[in-house]
Amino acid sequence: MKFRVYNKTLDPILWDDKTIKPEVGESLLKIAEDFYNSTDLKGDIHNILFLGSSANYNWTPTSDIDIHVVIDIAEEKINEEYARKFMDGLATKWNTEHDIEVKGHPVEVYLQDLREPNSTPQQARPGAAIYSLYDNKWLLEPNPQNIKLDTDKIRRKFQSIKKKIEELIQTEDFEKMKGLMKSIRNYRNAGLSEGGEFSVENIVFKALRHSGDLTRLKDTINTIYDRKRSLPEEGNILSYKKTEPLNEDLGGRPFIIVGIVYKNLGIKSDINYGEESGTSHDIDLRLDSEKGDIRWRYKSKTNTIYYWPDDNKPTKDQREEIIGYLRSKYNVVNPKEIYSLDKYFYDAHSIDELREISSIVKSNLKYNFISY
What we know:
The chain is an alpha+beta fold. The chain folds into three domains: 15-140, Beta Polymerase, domain 2, CATH 3.30.460; 151-229, no CATH class; 255-370, 3-Layer(aba) Sandwich (Severin). Helix content is 39%, strand content 18%. It has ten helices and 14 strands. It has helices spanning 22-39, 80-97, 151-171, 174-195, 200-211, 213-229, 285-288, 316-330, 343-347, 351-362, and strands at 15-16, 19-20, 45-51, 65-71, 101-102, 105-113, 130-132, 137-140, 255-261, 267-273, 294-299, 304-308, 336-339, 368-370. Strands 5-6-4-3-7-8 form a six-stranded mixed β-sheet. Strands 10-9-11-12-13-14 form a six-stranded mixed β-sheet, sandwiched between helices. Strands 1-2 form a two-stranded antiparallel sheet. The protein is elongated and about 75 Å long. The model is unreliable at 233-251, 275-280, 341-358 and 360-372 (pLDDT under 50).
């Protein structure tokens, strides 16, 4: 992937040499003022700044235009501990609700406290350029310096993070993907604080955004979250994938998991292997469970969870707890579920016996098969 890091001139679509084009400046100033008026904040605007790569020599044709509305957050009497999150929330709401472009560049607005980096030339990060839309002048001009970049280090780090993103998207591990996204942001922020616009960390971040990898990671996280929290009309949990028998990766052997999910959502389980022989385990389902607890088994050959007893069906939270547990620990995807096995459940200690359950249940209308 080719990614342009440095240019000899500012973006000619936005600038005439180092002078902002009048229609661009007017448009950005109006957008910033409309954003601030939408927040219902009461304090004064101290400045409206044009920052980032579109105001510097590291622009690309797809770079965002970053507009920062500088305020004194202390005037709003907001607890300092929550001030940053509060300001980010207001900006995120606006940016989500609006899809604004100026000369083909997406416009992103932010709230910035006057005490934060880049709010004044004295607080500028290394390599930063700051243009005041309020005063229509440079506060800190971009410097067309000869930038020395460690291209090998940038390439290695980019490929390393890209590989992690691809691997986690394949596994659909929601928590690990969220953790990776957070670590990437922290990685970039650390680079900006220490090395500024041309730090390795910031350039790697921009390369990941330019390649679309960050967007794919974010979209996957949002899609999985929406599926996890959605409940269709029939009351079943939505599928991650089409249900199919699990390809066992636990030594290539079929297995049964015997377990209890307690009414407080804790889980106790044991795994057993075998094809023809009976299984043994350390859990006594009858002794270890109480009213409100649910006894269950999982069979790898058919990718099916069996619940018991029939007069005490699992709650939605208990089902989600079991399915999430099997997914995270044994890579189980989209198991089918069978309810109301009654007396057959507890006595079915071998895989052969579980095979017989299918024919018994299919011939008896009181048993309820639910698949996803």
